[in-house]
Structures are given as C-alpha cells and as structure tokens.
C-alpha cells in the first residue's frame, strides 16, 4: 500500500527466536533501533517474519512471473546494483533495452522502415507505461485543439468498466474524464459499438484491453478500429486507440498470430505490455511502444547531461534497476518465438484441463473464454448456502491464494473466482487444486445442512423450517461470505 499504517504504541517490538543467539534486546517495530545488530540476527528476524507470507508459486491471484531459470537469476543478481538511468556508464545495458524495444515492436507489427528504429521505453510495469501513453495522447490532442483555436480543458478517455485501476489513476492524476462503457451480465468486456458512441471531439483515445483482468477475454480491437475509422470520417476527428496488452501482448502473437489487434490496425498508436507477466520476467518491468515518432510528442522527452552525455528520457520516475531489463533480453533470446509459443500453448492446455475438472463438479459456470489469457474465471450456479468468497477463504487452508471478487458496474451482482495459469502451474498442481475445491465444497455443503438442522430444531420444528433455513443461510453468509480478496 502507498499509505502505511503503524501502531501509536512506541512499545511494540519485533521478536525472533533464533536471533537471540546474537542479540538479547528487543527491536522496536516502527522506529529505527538505536544500536546495530549482527547481520545473522537481522537476517533471521526478517526470514522468520516472511515465513507467514503466502507461497508465490501457489498465488493464483497474480499474473506476475514467479519462476525463472537459475541462469537468468544469476544475471539478475550480477546486475542488481546497476541503475538503468546511468546510460553513459552502462552503455551495453542501454543497448539491451533498445534491442528489447525493437524486438517487441516487431512482434506487435510496428511499421518500422529499413533504416528506422522502434519508438518505445522500458518502465517499471504496465501502470507506468499506461501513464506515459496517456500523457502522449493528451498532449497530442491538446496541441491539435490549440491549433484549431478550440478549448482543451476537458479531455476525456473512453474505456470499459473492466479496466485495471491504473486507468482510473491516470484519469484522476492527470485530470482526464474517464468515460466507462458499463458491463452487462454475460458480456464482461467493453462493447466497441457503445464505446464509439461515447466518443466526442474531446476524446484523447479509446483504450482497448487485450486480456481483461476479470475474465482474461480479449476485446475486439479490430471492430473498434473499423467503427472508429467510420466515425472519424463522418466527424473529421482523428480519435486514436491505445491497446492495453499488459497480459495478452506476450500471448496473442504466439497463439493467435492471425488476430488483428496491434499496429496492423491504423488507429492503434501505442501498446503497453508487462514483461513481468507473460513476458516471463520477475517484477517489475513493462514496455510501451509507439507506432511512430510522430505519436510521441517531442516536448514530452527530456534531455539531460549531468550523468555524462546527452540522454533523452521519458519516464515518470528517474532511477530504476537494470536487472529486469537484462532479464527480459535473456528471455527474448533464450526462448525465441518457438519457446514462447510452447510455453503459452502449455499454459492454455493446463487452463483447459482445469476448466474441464471444474465443469465436472456441476457447481460452477465458467465465464472465461478459451481464446484469451490462460485463466479460469468461474461463478457458482447456486450461492444459497455459500459463496465464492467462502471457497476463496477456505482454499487458504491448503496454501492456495485464489481471489474472489464482484464484477464492475453494471454487473456487480456477479461474484467470481479467478484462477490464473502461469508457466509454473503444472498438471499435478491443477489436479491437487481440483481435489481441494471438491473437498471444500463438500465441507461447506455439510456445514450448511448442519446449520439448517440446528436452526430448524431451535425454531420449533417443520412449521418454521422455511424461515429457519433463511435465517441459517443469512447467518452463514454474514460469518463467512465477506469479500476477502481483490483482483491483481
């Protein structure tokens, strides 16, 4: 969290069993200690506390990479002390970033000429990438409006209500109205027709998602492009498209190369992708690629020379580690197109196996699509006696971290469990997860029946059974049906 919470009590301390071999005094929890302690004690104290974290490999809430090859891990540790921004001091690292930008741009079919280089930057993740892309759209729109002698104080951006929170942050931080296309039950992505209807002269761009956070589904960028081309012709506007490919950008090119969602569409001007998701790199690294130099206003690029040479920079922060950029280059050359394709095919196959097993329970409706990000999003067919939040909470007993959440407006009544399939989630884990889900459902069923029997008896027999059932159900939901997990 950005905002931390600390106890007002100055007496709270940190305790560790084995560190007592090295230090006898208690350590204050929220204040820096007065004296140094041995390195062994510091390590032991922190290691003991971290034992209560979840297991990253069993964290099925997150799209973020949790395993890399040891060789890449060594490269990361060898370069963890390099600050990427020191380009003059680390010219090879800068060159590796440029190679990554060009490889990804070609993967996304950017129209790069024979003697041209791709336009893009590395970021700490897709959130920063989206901020940068949004700023470029806003500045281009403002410049155009000023040239036409029109006001430029009320920009807006059109998205679906299913966008990740970073889009809401962009809108709020940079004073852009966020116009959201509401969802409907059974259709949990942005409707391109409704999106284009919301476009006006002040729209800086329409954002489409290649891999919805909620269900993994790809939005129809091709249809959005075609409809927007027609609207631009009718109105004389030139509203562009940004594709948020945070998850799908490293999946679709390998599994559905014929799918038109990228720079093959003329209105797509920029694309972001997360290297630390299906780019298969530890967090945090992201990328934003522009169609051409004309799509990134020159006035947004800063030139600095106090690190030794003229360096162009377009980022929200300054210093950042170089290790994740190097790791991305490792994955791109180590795996190549063939390697990424095999990994994504395996993820898709494991998702299909898990979906089949969940279907076999007869208790769930599957909301996710086969063609999309490899995840399984499910809702209960009958939530009378327990909810998906109960299942999510109980899965923690077995070490699994599976989020439960409600859909955005206007589908808030739909509550979902989402299981993300990453490279390190294999068939054996899928079978174990299915067994644990079935065990939990059986326990929750038995608990509900027992609670109903007790309530019925307490209410005076069969005559009051209906109200007793209702009372037991409500009591059970109050106890265990609260939302416990969010969307990552």
From TrEMBL:
Its cofactor is pyridoxal 5'-phosphate. GO terms for cellular component: cytosol. It comes from the Eukaryota. InterPro entries: Glutamate_decarboxylase (IPR010107), PyrdxlP-dep_de-COase (IPR002129), PyrdxlP-dep_Trfase (IPR015424), PyrdxlP-dep_Trfase_major (IPR015421). It is an enzyme of class 4 (lyase). Keywords: Decarboxylase, Lyase, Pyridoxal phosphate. Its EC number is 4.1.1.15. Pfam families: Pyridoxal_deC. It catalyses: L-glutamate + H(+) = 4-aminobutanoate + CO2. The modification N6-(pyridoxal phosphate)lysine is found at residue 277. GO terms for biological process: L-glutamate catabolic process. GO terms for molecular function: glutamate decarboxylase activity; pyridoxal phosphate binding. The keyword Lyase applies. Belongs to the group II decarboxylase family. PANTHER family: GLUTAMATE DECARBOXYLASE (PTHR43321). This is Glutamate decarboxylase. The gene is LOC123442422.
């Amino acid at each position: 969290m950005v905002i931390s919470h600390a106890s007002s009590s100055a007496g709270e301390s940190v305790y560790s069993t084995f560190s007592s071999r090295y230090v006898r005094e208690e350590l204050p929890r929220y204040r820096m200690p007065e004296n140094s302690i041995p390195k062994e004690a510091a390590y032991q104290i922190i290691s003991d506390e971290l034992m209560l974290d979840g297991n990253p490999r069993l964290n099925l809430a997150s799209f973020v990479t949790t395993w890399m090859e040891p060789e890449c891990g060594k490269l990361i540790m060898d370069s963890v002390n390099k600050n990427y921004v020191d380009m003059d001091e680390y010219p090879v690292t800068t060159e590796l970033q440029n190679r990554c930008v060009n490889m990804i741009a070609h993967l996304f079919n950017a129209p790069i000429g024979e003697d041209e280089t791709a336009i893009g930057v590395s970021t700490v993740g897709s959130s920063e990438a989206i901020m940068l892309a949004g700023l470029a759209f806003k500045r281009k729109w403002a410049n155009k409006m000023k040239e036409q002698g029109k006001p430029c104080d009320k920009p807006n951006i059109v998205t679906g209500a299913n966008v990740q929170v970073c889009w809401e942050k962009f809108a709020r931080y940079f004073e852009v109205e966020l116009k959201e296309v509401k969802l409907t039950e059974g259709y949990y992505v942005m409707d391109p027709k409704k999106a284009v209807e919301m476009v006006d002269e002040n729209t800086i761009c329409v954002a489409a998602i290649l891999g919805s956070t909620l269900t993994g589904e790809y939005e129809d960028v091709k249809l959005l492009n075609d409809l927007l081309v027609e609207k631009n012709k009718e109105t004389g506007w030139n509203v562009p498209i940004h594709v948020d490919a945070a998850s799908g950008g490293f999946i679709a090119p390998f599994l559905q190369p014929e799918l038109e969602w990228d720079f093959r569409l003329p209105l797509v001007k920029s694309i972001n992708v997360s290297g630390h998701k299906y780019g298969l790199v530890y967090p945090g690294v992201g990328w934003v690629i522009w169609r051409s130099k004309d799509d990134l206003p020159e006035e947004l690029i800063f030139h600095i020379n106090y690190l030794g040479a003229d360096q162009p920079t377009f980022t929200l922060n300054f210093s950042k580690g170089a290790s994740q950029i190097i790791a991305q280059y490792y994955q791109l050359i180590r795996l190549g197109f063939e390697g990424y394709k095999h990994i994504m095919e395996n993820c898709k196959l494991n998702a299909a196996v898990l979906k089949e097993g969940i279907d076999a329970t007869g208790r769930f409706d599957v909301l996710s699509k086969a063609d999309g990000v490899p995840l399984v999003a499910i809702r209960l067919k009958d939530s009378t006696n327990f909810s998906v939040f109960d299942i999510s909470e109980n899965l923690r007993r077995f070490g699994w971290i599976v989020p439960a959440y409600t859909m955005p407006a206007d589908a808030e009544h739909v509550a979902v469990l989402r299981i993300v399939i990453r490279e390190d989630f294999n068939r054996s884990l899928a079978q174990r997860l299915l067994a644990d889900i079935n065990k939990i459902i059986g326990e929750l069923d038995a608990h509900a029946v027992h609670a109903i029997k007790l309530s019925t008896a307490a209410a005076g027999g069969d005559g009051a059974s209906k109200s007793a059932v209702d009372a037991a159900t409500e009591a059970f939901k109050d106890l265990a049906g609260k939302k416990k997990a969010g969307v990552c």
